[in-house]
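debug: dumping io for the single-chain case to check the tokenizer round-trip. Nothing else runs in this session.
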Amino acid sequence: MSKSHCRRLRGMVYTMTNEYTNRIVAFSRLQNGQVTFLDTFDTGGSGTAEQIVDPLVSQGSVILSRGNCFLFAVNAGSNSISSFKVTPTGKLWLRDVEYSNGIRPNSLAVFRNRLYVTNVGDNNNPANVTGFYVANDGQLSPIAGSTTSLSTANPQPSCIVFSHDGSQLAVSELNTNRISIFNVNSDGTLSGPYVNNSSGAGPFGSVFLSFGPLLVSEAGPNALSSYYVNNNGSLNVISPSVLNGQVATCWVAVSRNEEFAYTTNAGSGTISIYRVFPNGILRLAGIVYSTRSQIAAPIDEAVSQDGCNLFVLNGNLGTITEFTIKDDGFILIPTKIISNPAIPEVGAQGMAVI
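debug: decoded output
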């Protein structure tokens, strides 16, 4: 949508400190386009406190429920998940903190009243996926029998996402170069994984499109691939590893109309723009820098729900770049750099936007 046709809505921007005392940092988005700091909110858990870019090696560490009633965040240092109620003003009310049923939770996916998390594991505890019910007040309760192993004990899950109808979950496995698909049963337990080889090495960020295809970024070749997901969990490649010539392509988001996809490339400080055709075929359409500094290391990203803006967390600067989305999603224009001392210069993670 061109800027002149974009109806800007009042909204919010959330990111996570991942410090020992883990916090969500919240910014208000006003209808005039101004973004202002709102507050920080303790998660009731601990981050890893690692002062490195992308400490959780994941996409989806902070997510919003459909309808924006709840915000969920991982506490990788204390092996827990936080559930917040989102108030009408955008402030967060901590409703629950629950053990993630594994070690080092790093990615979340929610569909209606079900929340699933990937746990990376350690030398003594294998990686897994596990599910929770989300009550009307935001309280979490484990789904009995939902904890399920991935393809190996140490696959380094990097992203978990729901299909549009909630019937399947896809997990990118960075270490194994695989994509595991789970079918979600009526009782919330999982069938699978149905293990598929990734088109390219280092599958990382993922997003399901509403019309079916799954997009997966690849940190190995620095590319984006698209797949058709079959009911039995197998994948058919649509566009294999469409290269962008950048470095450390790890995160992916899509425009509101799903005609364009954006990958952040932490190693080159850029965002790649891909055209998404109705059949799921991908074509590289352009490149834009996240900041004037090539050391910005753009990591997590999210498109505002009005479709007007893309927000990108600069993992090596502790800032957020706001882009205006124009011309049906193709052109990204850097609008402003959001900076606040509440965001650690290095070590922050996650991005969720209303």
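debug: round-trip ok. The domain at 3-353 is CATH 2.130.10.10 (Methylamine Dehydrogenase; Chain H).
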